[in-house]
Structure to design on (696 residues):
């Protein structure tokens, strides 16, 4: 997480402002590494948790966004497996008590996979908004029993479809 | 880590067979997640450890490859920060006692950053060789005290230069 | 985290009901292991985070309990090191969106160390209250620069002193 | 992991020198926390891995000690759950390339649980031997399907019985 990359000029990115999910995810001091900032793999752990909270069905009585419709589990239902992931880090993340805000939307909804786009910011109430990272994950839905890919069903397609936007563009790709 | 992606046909990839580092990294049962295979973020943890063992200077008496020349530390020396990372997963990784083999080479050696390429296989003594994942990380060298990028020095350039090969090509990018 | 131990009969333990801290700590799905419940070492990670939030000084503008007076850091201030820890698990912890509630108090405040007692419950708003675990940690304060133990200062002694209670008793010790 | 506790005078502890298992476990740089030494919860992760390698049945072709007889798995076989754990830390653990050596033996073999004792040292080839930590874990065997405790069977009892020694005594308990 270099202090040296040209960070995007403003926190508001150039991608189309589609409807986004805003998932607060609390840091832990244990996410830091010996360089005293959030380890780059911990950041992916935070994105994983945001994904679970955004898309997996909640237990009765739990709060969850409308997109939380995926029945996930190893004994039954669906496994969500990461096929590919791309991430760019713009600023080192110090420990902070307020949750980070993970903004999420779909870059694409395919037959049995989806492309999830993420932008990770500090807490919206902060004096200065900071964009820490951007990431894209291709998530494949796999039937827990058969181990085979399973279709994005009609309910997912309808609800998740409300959160489709432009996919992220990675400036530093080559 | 889908069972569903078209895996590269053979373990021997199409990239130029440059001199590669072969770093054995032991799995831990704790790398598994509730889906009972190695979590996708754990895989990045394994790559991190391979990178440390390949490139960071060893303590007196420790074994290390010739490429282990980077003096790393938070109090002095150099921090190695990940600016971007890209990874594709080809097969789920079960727990196994034999270490995985992380093959590494440089896709590019820049002024104050390097592009590290990885291919992760099971143990070379296994009956059937499996390519689990491919990844590319852009690593920036930052002076621990000033926080500013620092040059890849002559020693690194000379020794690391022996391990430069074609960068990885990602088939599933879009 | 056996389903088999005799759990304490009621959530309200027999220790003197001293003033306790109540720190909500969110689970992550990544805290689960391949047995599909929160790994026993993840539980200690949750206690670590509760300790940091309870006792370490907050940054300007952050919310924290009155006990958060310890200036912690590797460059200056104080390192808090665990000298010993004891933990008993009463019930397996499933993933849940609502934060767990970590209740904390001091079993003892010594010269340069403190004994921290923990009881970990599910969310207070839950229909049925569950005590998941009890733990005691001996935490030593060490000067970050000299590496030597440092005194519990007057401010800590005064404020932390309001949260001293009976130490936990471990029924299954032998 | 204080630098301040009275460490046991010699690495050879006072417990009866029963036959012990010696399991090498590699550190990862990622086991360090922001205090730049192995985090106390990472130490428990190392003990977990030592336990898995010592007691869980290996796959065909894998090397394992004779004690590796337990069929573990969430779908069938046995879950090993930690009911209680106690640990004392004697010295901070820096990152090192050589594996730590986890010495293990049984303090007790019960009906459906065992008490596992650990001493964690640096690599036996090191110039100076260092005892980093001692721990005791009570592990309960639970049937994966029924969720009920299951008996230590005759094979376990016979083979594990060769590694029974005096349980650890904790000097700093109170």
């Amino acid at each position: 997480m270099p202090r040296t990359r040209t960070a995007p000029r403003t926190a508001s990115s150039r991608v189309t402002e589609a409807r986004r999910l805003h998932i607060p995810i609390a840091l832990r001091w244990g996410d830091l590494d010996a360089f005293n900032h959030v380890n780059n793999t911990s950041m992916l752990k935070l994105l994983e948790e945001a994904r679970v909270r955004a898309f997996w069905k909640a237990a009765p009585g739990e709060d969850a966004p409308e997109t939380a419709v995926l029945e996930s589990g190893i004994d039954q239902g669906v496994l969500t497996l990461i096929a590919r992931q791309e991430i760019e880090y713009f600023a080192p993340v110090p420990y902070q008590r307020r949750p980070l805000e993970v903004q999420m939307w779909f870059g694409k909804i395919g037959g049995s996979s989806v492309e999830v786009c993420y932008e990770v910011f500090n807490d919206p109430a902060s004096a200065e908004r900071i964009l820490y990272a951007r990431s894209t994950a291709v998530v494949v839905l796999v039937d827990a029993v058969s181990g085979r890919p399973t279709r994005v069903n009609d309910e997912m397609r309808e609800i998740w479809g409300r959160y489709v936007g432009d996919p992220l563009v990675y400036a530093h790709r080559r």
Observations:
- The beta strands of chain B are 21-25, 78-89, 100-109, 113-121, 131-143.
- The domain at 21-163 of chain B is CATH 3.10.129.10 (Thiol Ester Dehydrase; Chain A).
- Chain B has a mean pLDDT of 90.
